[in-house]
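Most newcomers find our protein records easier to grasp once they have seen one. To make this concrete, we reproduce a full record directly below:

…
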Amino acid sequence: MHDGVAAAFAQLRHHASMTTQQTAVDRVKRLAVGKREAATMLGISIRSVENYIALKLIDARKIGKRTVVIVASLERFLRHDQPSPSHIRPRMLRQEQREIAQ
């Protein structure tokens, strides 16, 4: 019986330490998030995040095969009103095509 109590206390201590570690992780400000989390943070679709990245309005980096979005760029992005990426992209593509043709 005594061994069972000791084991239970050991589990409680382990759980308490894990909770403390998780709380410490929660307090650390993340530098980058995935595209899905960035979309959730902004309340827009993942595709819109990808379009804003392509338009260089949101900064992102590749880490292996994964694209991460820089949180500071999301904060800068939100400081100003932003047009829909579907309105910007065709105009930018036409401008790029004109520059290539010259």
Notes: Residues 1-29 form one domain. The first helix runs from residue 2 to 27.
